């Protein structure tokens, strides 16, 4: 065999090995990181119909900061809403939700530093004297459809 044939065989085997590793993760129930995923978030406990409900899906680096995957829907007084994220990638993320009652697209605080609007996180995580840690709210998005429920806290 010549040098070019050996090189071609090496790259074919490398690609086949990556495919097998991906399939093994998919079949074992572990998320194949980076595969297409969708997420439906059912938000309940909405206090009133003012403003809207904003949800963001964040990786660890963007948790409690600006996330590039955000959706907003009209609030439903005393009810619940569903938010759909259709262009996600599988992997480890946390979902942050808040009721933007005044429509300024910012999470507002009182003069004393307490939340002025309803809020919630994936896994209904709650922090101790502040927001939860990423690890407390983190979920593994699997390839395909994913669903979750978040109850707002006021």
UniProtKB/TrEMBL annotation:
Enumerate the Pfam families for this protein. DUF2141
Q: Which InterPro entries match?
A: DUF2141 (IPR018673)
- Top-rank lineage group of the source organism: Bacteria
Q: What name does UniProt use for this protein? A: DUF2141 domain-containing protein
Q: Which organism is it from?
A: Parachitinimonas caeni
